[in-house]
Amino acid sequence: MVHITFFLALAAILFCIGLYGVLTRRHLVIVLVCVELMLMAVSINLIAFSAIGPSAGIEGQVFTLFIISVAAAEVAVGLAILIALYRNRESIDVIKHDLLRW
Amino acid sequence: MIDTILSWLVFLPLAGALLILTIPKENKNVIRSIAIGTSILAFFVSVVLWAAFDRGHSGMQFYQVVPWLNLDFLQINYEVGVDGLSVPLVVLTTIVTTLALFASLSIQHRVKEFYVWTLVLLTGMLGVFVALDMFLFFLFFELTLIPMFFIIGIWGGKEREYASFKFLVYTGLGSAIMFITFIAMFVYGGTAMGGLQNSSFSIPQLAEIYANTDAISAGVRGALFLALFIAFAVKLPIFPFHTWLPNAHVEAPTAASMILAGVLLKMGGYGLIRVGIGILPDQAARFATLIAILGVVNIIYGALLALVQTDLKRLVAFSSISHMGIVLLGIASFTASGIQGAIFQLVSHGFISALLFFMVGALYERTKTRTISELGGLSKSVPILAGFTLAAAMASVGLPGLSGFVSELLAFIGVFGADASILPAAKLWGVIAGIGIILTAAYLLWAVQRTTFGQLNDKYKELQDARPLEYIPMIGLLGFSILIGVYPYILSDVINITVLDILSKIGG
Amino acid sequence: MIQNAWLIPVFPLIAFIILLFFGRYLKQKSAYVGITAMALSFILAVLVLFERIGGDTYTNTITWLTFGDSTISMGYEVTALNAMMLIVVTLVSLVVHIFSKEYMHEDDRINVFYSYLGLFSFSMLGLVLAPNILQLFIFWELVGLCSYLLVGFWFFKPEAAAAAKKAFLTTRIGDVGLLIGLVLLFTATGSFEYGEVFAAMEAGLLNGTISEALVTVIAICIFLGAVGKSAQFPLHVWLPDAMEGPTPVSALIHAATMVAAGVYLVGVMYPVFLASNTAMTVVAYTGAITAIFAATIALVNTDIKRILAYSTVSQLGLMILALGTVGYVAGLFHLMTHAFFKALLFLGAGSVIYGLHHRQDIRKMGGLWSRMKVTSITFLIGALAIAGVPPLAGFWSKELVLAAVWYEGDIFLFILAVLTSLLTAFYMFRLFFKAFTGEFRGDHEPHGENSKLMTMPLVVLATLAVVAGFVNTPFGFWLEGFLTEGLNVGYSAHGDAWLIFLSIGIAVAGIALAWAMYYKKSIPEDFLSSKFPGAHKVLLNKYYMDEFYQKAFVLPTVTIGKFFWEVDRSIIDGIVNFVGRSTRNSGRTFAKRHDGQLQTYGLVTIIGGLAVIAVAFVLGGYFG
C-alpha cells in the first residue's frame, strides 16, 4: 500500500506548477491549462483521501466527478471568452488586459 | 387634521418634490410655481401651527407617535412634537425657504433638480425641528446634508466641488460623532435601566431616564455631553470647527447661502439645546465656562476675520460665525434671559443673515464681483438695493428696532445676571463680547462705506435697481426682522415657558 | 392732551414713511410734508408742556418683552425734564426743516434728506419721551443711525462716507458701555423703569445688597454712553468730522439735539450718579477737560463749521461739568439755551456757506456784515449769547454753571471753567470779526442776503437766544422749580454778585482780545503761531488724537485680524485640508497597486492567504 504522503506530494507539486503557471504565463491558453492542472491536483487529493484517508468514503470521488464536469464547462466557457476577447482586442496576452485597473 | 399638523407640514415639501419629478424638465415655470406654491403652503401650515400653539402650556404639543422599527431590545418610533423652542424655528424655516425660492428665480440651469433638492431640504430641516426621537432626528439631520451638497456642487461658484465636498465630509463627520453619541446614550440608558428594552431613543423619555438614575457616572455623562457638543459645534459652527462655512457660503448660490445661514446653522444650536441641554442639563451647566469661552472666541474671532476680508460674501460668512457666538454665550449663562436670547438670536440671525446673503447675491449678479475694493458708490446707481444692504448691515450690527438687538440685549442680561456658581467670571465674558459688538459695527460699516458709499465706478453706472420679484425676499426678511425688533413680545410669549422648563431641570 | 403725547414723535414718523415710499414723486414738495409734520409736533409739544406745568407726570406703557419672571415694557412718559426737551427738539427741528427747504433745494435727493430728518425727529422725540432707560437706549441708537445717514448724506464724497462711519463707530464704543451699564443696572435692580430703578437702588444701597462700587461701575458705564454721544474727551473725535454733513443737519443733530442727549442721559439717570462720589468726580473732570481741550482747538481752526463744532464739544463739556458738580439745573438749563444759540450759529454759518457757494474757510471770508445783514446780526446775537454777555440766554445759564462749579469747591475745575469761558468768547469773536468784518477776501462775491425762508429761522432762533434765559434768572427761578419738583437732586447754587461780575468780565475780556487782534489788529494775528509754533502746530493737528487712535487701535486691530486670518487659513483650515488630503492621498497610493494585472492580484491573494494561515497557525499554537 502506497503511503498517502506520496499522493499528497504529487498533488502539491502539481498544484504549485499550476499556480506558478497561472501567475506567470502571459498566454491565456496556458493560463487556462494551468488552472486545469490545479483542479486536477485537488482531484488527486480528494481521490487519495477517499481511498485511503482516515475516514475513507465515496464522497471524494463524487466531488472529483463534479470537478471534472465543472472543469469541462469552465474550459468551454473560458475558451469562448478567450476567443471573444481575441476578436475584440486582437491579443490573448494577459498583461495587455488590465480593465480591472483602479 | 390639527393633531397631525406636524406630519403634514414635514411631508408636504416632499410631496411637492415628488410632484415636480413628474413634470418634464422643460416646463421651468410650472416647476418654479409648484416649488414656490408648496413652500408657501408649508408657510401657511406653519402659521397655523404658530397660531394654534398654546403659549401657556409647557411640554410638547401636537405630539404624535407611531411605532416604526420595533425589535425586542430596540424601540424606534416616529415621534414628533413641538414646544416653544421649535415652533419659532419651524416658522423661520418655512419663511426663509420660501423667500430663498423667490431669490432663486434667476437660476436657469437644471431647474427641475434644483427645486426638487430644495424641497427635499425643506422636509429635512422641518423634520429636524419637530423630531423627538433621536434616530428620526439623525435621519432628518442627514437628509439636509445631501441636498445641500448637490446644490452647492452643481449650482455653486468656481470652487464649488471643493466647497461641497468639504461641507459634506466635515458636517458628515459631525453627524457621525452625533450618531455614535446617540447610540452610546441609548446603551448607557439601557445599562442604567437594566436592559436595552427599557432604554429609549425618544428624547423626552431618555431625559427622564438620565434625570432619575445614578447608575451613569459623571465622567460618562460629561464625555457624552462633550461628544454631542462637538457634533453640533461643527454645524453651528464653533471655532475651531468653522472652516467649512466660509467655503460653502462663498461658493453656494444665493438661495443656498440664505438657507444655509438662515436655517442649517440653527440646527446646530437647536440640537445643542434640545438634545445636549435637554438630556444632560447638569453636564451643560458643568461646562458653562467652556461654552462661554468658545462663545466669546467665536464672537471676537469671527469679527476680527470679517474685518480683514476682501470678499463681501466671505465677510458675511464670518459675521455668521461671530453672531453664533452670541447663541453660545446666551446658553452658557443658564438664565432665562440668556437662553431666550440664544433662541432669539437663532431666529433673528436667520432673517438677518439670509437678507445679507440675498443683498450680496443681488449686488454680485449686477456687478459680477464680490471684491469689496472693486465696488463703491452703489447708492448712486442702485439706491434701493443699497438701502436694503445698509438696513441688513444695521440689523446685523444690532441696531435697536431690528431683531438682532433684542437677542443681544437678552444674552447680555443673561450673562451679566448669571449665577456665579454656574458661570464664574461671567461679567468678564460679557465685557469681551461687548468689544465684539464694536468690532461688528466696524467691519459692517467699513464694508458698507466701501461698497455703497464713496465714488461710483463708471462700470456700474447703468445697473438695474431692484426688480419687482426681488422686493419679496427683501421686504419679507427685513419686515420680520423689524417685527421682532419692534415688538419682541410675540416671540418671547411663545418661548418663555419652554425656557423656564429647561431651566427648572438645571436648577435640579 | 398729555395722554396724546405719543403723537409728538409719530407725526415725523409718518412723514418719514410717506417720504420713504412716495418721496421720489414729491421731490421738492417733500419739504412741505416734513414741515407740516414738525409743525404739528411742535404745537402738540407746546400744549403738552402747558398741561404738564399745571399737572403731573403722565406715564403709559405696554408689555414689550417677557423672559423668565421679568417683563420689560415700552411706552411714553411726560415729566418736567422731557416736557422741556420736547419743546427744544420740536422747535429746533421745525426751524431746521424750514431752513433746509431753501438750503437743500439744489439737491435732487431732497426727498431723502427730509425723510431722514423725519426719522431723526421721530427718534429724538422717542428718546425724550422714553419712560425707561432701555427705551431711551433704543432711540439713542436710532438717533445714532440718523446721524450716520445724515452725515453720510453726500455719500459720494469719500470724506463724508468716512466721517459717517467714524461718527457711528465712535459713538458705538460709548453705546456698548451704556448697554453694559444698563444691563448691570437691570441685573442689580430688576427693572429698567426710572422710578423703580432709583427706588430699588436706594433700597439696595441701604440694606447692602448693592455695593457702592457696583453703583460707581454702573454710573461710569452709563456715562460712557454720554461721552460717546455728547462727544466728550476722549471720544470727541467724531463730531468735528461730522461737519461733512449738510449744515442744517449740523445745526439740528450735532449742536442742538442729539449731542445734547448725552447730557440729557446724565440728567435722567442723575440719582445713580449722585449715589457715587467717584462717578461724579469722573463726570466733572471729563467735562472740564473736554471743555478746555476743545476750546483750545477752536482757537486755531479756520473752517467755520469746525470752529462751531469744537465750540459745541466745549460747551457740552461745560454742561457735563455742571452736572458733575451737582449743578443739575445748571447743566440742563445750559443744554436748553445752548440748543437755541448754537442752532442759531450753525444756521447762520449755513446761511453764510450757502451765500458763498459752499465755501467754509474763514480766511476766504470777511466783510459779510454789509453784504448779509440779517445773517450777520443774528450771528452776532448768537456769538454774544455763547460768550455770555448779559442779558442774553447764554449769560444766565453759564453763570449758573460757574456757580455750580464754584460751590462744589474744586478750584482746579473752576479755573478750567473760567478759562473755557474766556476762550469761548475769544474764538467766537475771532470767527465773527474774521468772517463778518474787514474786507472780503474770497473769490466769489456773495449775491446778497438769502431769502426769507432762510433768514426767518435765524430771526426766530435769535429771539430765543435773547429771551430763553429769562426762565431762570437770579430774579426768578422758574425753570429750577419746574425741573426739580418732586426730585431729590441736591442743592442748586445761585451765583453771588462777584460771580456775576466775573462772568461778565470774562466775556468782555475775551471779546476785547479778539477785537484787538482781528478787528483793530493792534496785536498781530499770527501772535500764537509765531511765538509758540510748537503749540500752534499741536492745536492745528487737534492734539494728534486721530493719528493716535489710528496707530493705537485701528492698526493693531487690523493687524491682529490679518494675523488670525493667516492662522485660520494655514493652520486651522490647514489641518482640515491635511486630514482630507492625506486620506485621499493614501487612497491614491494604495489604488496604484491595483494595476489591473490579474496575475499580480492572484499573487497578492495567495501571499495574503498564506500569511493568514501562517498567523493562524502561529497564534493558534499549531507549531507548538
Automatic annotation (TrEMBL), chain A:
Pfam families recorded: Oxidored_q2
Protein task: NDH-1 shuttles electrons from NADH, via FMN and iron-sulfur (Fe-S) centers, to quinones in the respiratory chain. The immediate electron acceptor for the enzyme in this species is believed to be a menaquinone. Couples the redox reaction to proton translocation (for every two electrons transferred, four hydrogen ions are translocated across the cytoplasmic membrane), and thus conserves the redox energy in a proton gradient.
Similarity-based family: Belongs to the complex I subunit 4L family.
Membrane disposition: Multi-pass membrane protein
Catalysed reaction equations from the record: a quinone + NADH + 5 H(+)(in) = a quinol + NAD(+) + 4 H(+)(out)
Cellular location(s): Cell membrane; Membrane
NCBIfam families: PRK05715.1-2, PRK05715.1-3, PRK05715.1-4, PRK05715.1-5
UniProt-listed Enzyme Commission number(s): 7.1.1.-
Protein name per Swiss-Prot or TrEMBL: NADH-quinone oxidoreductase subunit K
Main localization (coarse): membrane
InterPro entries per record: NADH_UbQ_OxRdtase_chain4L/K (IPR001133), NUOK/Mnh_C1-like (IPR039428)
Organism: Evansella vedderi
Domain of life: Bacteria
Keywords linked to the UniProt accession: Cell membrane, Membrane, NAD, Quinone, Translocase, Transmembrane, Transmembrane helix, Transport
Regions crossing the membrane: 6-23, 30-52, 64-86
Subunit-level organization: NDH-1 is composed of 14 different subunits. Subunits NuoA, H, J, K, L, M, N constitute the membrane sector of the complex.
UniProtKB/TrEMBL annotation, chain B:
UniProt xrefs under InterPro entries: NADH4_N, NADH_Q_OxRdtase_chainM/4, NADH_UbQ_OxRdtase, ND/Mrp_TM
Subcellular location: Cell membrane; Membrane
Keyword Transcription regulation: no
Signal peptide region: none
Pfam families linked to this entry: Oxidored_q5_N, Proton_antipo_M
Domain (NADH:ubiquinone oxidoreductase chain 4 N-terminal): residue spans on this chain: 49-126
Top-level division of the source organism's lineage: Bacteria
Topology with respect to the bilayer: Multi-pass membrane protein
Record's keyword annotation contains Membrane: yes
Transmembrane segments: 6-23, 30-53, 85-107, 114-132, 138-155, 167-189, 209-234, 255-273, 285-308, 315-336, 342-364, 385-416, 428-448, 469-490
UniProt similarity note: Belongs to the complex I subunit 4 family.
Name of protein: NADH-quinone oxidoreductase subunit M
Automatic annotation (TrEMBL), chain C:
Superkingdom: Bacteria
Gene3D superfamilies linked to this entry: 1.20.5.2700
NADH-Ubiquinone oxidoreductase (complex I) chain 5 N-terminal domain residues: 64-114
Main localization, broad class: membrane
InterPro entries: NADHpl_OxRdtase_5_subgr, ND/Mrp_TM, NU5C-like, Proton_antipo_N
Keyword vocabulary terms for this entry: Membrane, Transmembrane, Transmembrane helix
Cellular localisation: Cell membrane; Membrane
Membrane topology designation: Multi-pass membrane protein
Entry similarity comment: Belongs to the CPA3 antiporters (TC 2.A.63) subunit A family.
NCBIfam families the UniProt entry points to: NDH_I_L, PRK06590.1
Protein name: NADH-quinone oxidoreductase subunit L
